[in-house]
Amino acid sequence: MLNIISLGAGVQSSTMALMAAHGEITPMPDCAIFADTQAEPKAIYDWLDWLETKLPFPVHRVSKGDLGADFIKALGDKKGRCGQPPFFVKNTTAAATATAGVGILWRKCTQEYKLQPIRQQVRRVMVETGEKRVQQWIGISSDEAQRMKPSDVKFIDNIYPLVDRNISRRDCLSWMKANGYPMPAKSACVFCPYHDDRFWRDMKVNQPAEFERAVQFERAVQFEQGTVQNGAKIYGQIFLHRSAVTLDKVDFRNKEDAGQLSMFGNECEGMCGV
What we know:
By secondary structure, this protein is an alpha/beta fold. The chain has 8 helices and 10 strands. It has helices at residues 11-21, 42-52, 67-74, 109-129, 161-164, 169-178, 197-206, 208-220, and strands spanning 2-6, 31-35, 59-62, 88-90, 102-104, 134-138, 156-159, 227-229, 232-234, 237-239. Strand 2 (31-35), helix 2 (42-52) and strand 3 form a beta-alpha-beta unit. Helix 7 packs across helix 8. It is globular, with a radius of gyration of 20 Å.
């Protein structure tokens, strides 16, 4: 049986991979697979470059394509197809839904740009090795145990080593610090609507080029209501922020910006990337 890590290159999956490299989680994985949406922040690609040097097993990088470019290309094309991110949509007509307001589109990007490429690579590794079953390691920690789910592929068994060992996300951070490793960034697409205000603010202040990339992407998908995407009409305008205000106009200032010191750390507890 193959043991393969589903590597998101965030805190949990990176810690899980390094713990395996230390022999603290067994058996030693045969490989790890990272699905690249081509929309991650530079910090994630830098982190992945570093992480590969610390692991005694190979990391396969796979990609279906550029999620952002593919989505823009599919706009207005009745035959266009692209797994959409969970955009916020401001309905402008009560006829479109029971009530006009701000809703959220169904997330399809993870399935098409993360899970499918990983499974295709799993099959390739199975063919190369002749193995018939796979244990796929998922980097969900004990504080996120509600996210666990069984595999829907008959030859893949999902396992959750961190949950099995009651290791939380904070435990992961503590383990990384204790072993002298740097802290990984949060793994998520630059323009992911699941970012909270803390993440957006950090991007705007510390990674202005990436924030501008998200702004420009949002402008590119600010189409009029009734635009066709994935063969269906979307009634409303798309936004990346839950306020249904464009990113360049959202006020992300916090108490520290107003001169108040924070008593707490800045570690994000987001659950988007593992």
